[in-house]
Specification:
Blueprint (H helix, E strand, L loop, with lengths): L4 H8 L4 H7 L1 E5 L1 H9 L4 E6 L11 E2 L2 H7 L8 E6 L13 E4 L5 H13 L4 E4 L9 H7 L7 E4 L2 H8 L3 E11 L9 E5 L8 H4 L4 E4 L11 H15 L3
Parallel strand pairs: 2-3, 5-6, 5-9, 6-7, 8-9, 8-10
Antiparallel strand pairs: 1-4, 2-4
Helix pairs in contact: 5-6, 5-9
Length: 242
């Protein structure tokens, strides 16, 4: 039950974004998500398990609990850990659904939950500003519950994606926009969800020609961005056939 010291050091370094980018690898951990990984098209570099999960993961390499703890990002170590190649995605030629654009989302838990909602509503692609949290951050991967393997994340500026797809409507999510439930969505549209702290940036606001808002009835200052995304996706799903 050994892993070389060099490999242990290298794979442990994947907790840092700079090392994930340098090595083109990321960590997946936990029984459920590793099962999702195995069923996906992602390329597994190495798969490790401690002895108590060896029967369930017969192709995995056995490692000690101590080494698993060094690889794991969690307080309670995972018994199954995958080292996975970061995929390269091509932006599709046609946007098959209303496009979702995430601007400067910085919380990995929110990003993972957004990916999970997108997956639930049948989205295959999402577009992220360069300042968004890394989707292969361990917390994002965990929060996505496997959806990170099915929703392709593309890093691109808003101006570039607008040029590529020539949207009729560039829709911002704001506190004072048109009521979401009376809004009519056009297929050639992009919806922008802003950062948790600051919302949509001033520069992005200049590109918006319409805005929507989820009606507020209570006293909360704002909605969590992942929850707001789910509500908007559900309304799109309810009103459209695409």
């Amino acid at each position: 039950m050994t892993i070389s010291r060099n490999d242990l050091k290298k794979f442990s370094s994947l907790k840092r974004k700079s090392k994930r980018n340098e090595l083109g690898l990321f960590i997946v951990e936990g029984k459920k998500i590793c099962n999702e990984l195995i069923q996906s098209e992602f390329e597994i570099e190495r798969l490790f398990t401690t002895e108590n999960f060896a029967i369930e993961f017969p192709t995995a390499e056995l490692i000690s609990s101590k080494d698993a703890d060094r690889l794991s990002n969690l307080k309670n170590q995972s018994n199954v850990i995958g080292i996975v190649k970061i995929p390269t995605y091509e932006i599709p030629d046609v946007s098959e659904k209303i496009t979702i654009y995430l601007e400067d989302i910085n919380d990995p838990g929110n990003m993972g939950a957004i990916l999970r909602s997108l997956d639930w509503f049948g989205y295959e692609n999402v577009y992220c500003s360069p300042n968004c949290v890394d989707v292969f951050n361990n917390k994002t991967v965990m929060a996505s519950m496997g959806s990170v393997f099915r929703v392709k994340s593309h890093t691109i500026s808003l101006s570039e994606i607008c040029k590529k797809f020539s949207f009729d409507d560039v829709i911002g999510t704001t506190l004072d926009g048109e009521n979401l439930y009376s809004f009519q969505f056009e297929k050639k549209s992009i919806i922008i969800l802003g950062s948790e702290a600051n919302g949509i940036s001033v520069n992005t606001s200049k590109l918006i020609n319409k805005s929507i808002s989820i009606p507020k009835k209570g006293n909360a200052e704002s909605l969590n961005v992942s929850i707001a995304t789910s509500i908007i996706l559900n309304e799109i799903n309810r009103k459209t056939n695409y």
